[in-house]
Amino acid sequence: MKEQRNYSGEFNRFDFSDYKDFIVKEEEKKRVYIFDSSVIIKWFSRIDEANLTEANMLYEKVLTREYNVLSPELLIYEIINVVRYKTNVPDTEINEIVKNLFELLIVIRLDSDIFLEAYRISQNTNSSVYDSIYLAVSKKYNTVLITADEKLYRNSVPFNFNIKLLKDFIAEKDDF
After folding, report:
1. CA nearest 50: which of 176, 128, 166, 172?
2. 3 in a domain, yes or no?
3. Whole-model pTM?
4. Which domain holds residue 85?
5. For 89-120, b where at least 16 C-beta lie within 10 A, e where not — what string?
6. How many domains, in total, are found in the chain?
7. Could you report the per-residue pLDDT of 9-29, keeping only the tens digit for each?
8. Cβ(138)–Cβ(152) under 8 Å?
């Protein structure tokens, strides 16, 4: 098995103005995306729900490092909260879930610019500031946001955000 690296710490010490400088040459040809918590929680779900197969297909791409995923640190809070209150994942597995998130994702710290942009986006799209943080990160890094949240998608499309529904993203890709 390929050695897992925790890219989060390295990335957060980097100049955010151009994230591509961070990704080493061998990984530049890999795809970089942002997945929101509506996609990633499906990786740990114990119940049958919509788009579970598609989410697991993405998980495999991330696990093999074919896809790199930028995630705002907010995602960690959201996943832990969902596991705590809305899933039947045993408490004993939370350590493994958090460890996996930090090994698989590039967790980025949020700065004041992202928070302010998220606030403006939330006003325009009538979405929560939490959801708008993913849109602001996607905008900052010029990267596609993949979501399973249809309301977020519907609210964002009229404003030309680079956002795709999970099911549509999988249907459009030729590498699955």
Report:
1. 166
2. no
3. 0.81
4. 30-172
5. beeeeeeebeebbbebbbbbeeeeebeebbee
6. 1
7. 555 555 555 555 554 444 555
8. no
